[in-house]
Amino acid sequence: MAARARLDVQKKSAHALEQERPDVLKRRQAWFDGQLDLDPAKLVFIPSRRRFACLPGNG
């Protein structure tokens, strides 16, 4: 039975197929064009702590 289940498994794509649609490409390009003043050196990344929320002592 496990061998049969594996026949339905498909490899995941590296990106969503919707990204290739013309309407999505147009909107993505418009968004990128609007980010000209975005300075990557000033970006701040805040790590998510949600995965630790269930552990005792992490209140």
TrEMBL record:
This is Uncharacterized protein. It comes from Aquibium oceanicum. It comes from the Bacteria. Residues 1-20 are annotated as: Disordered.
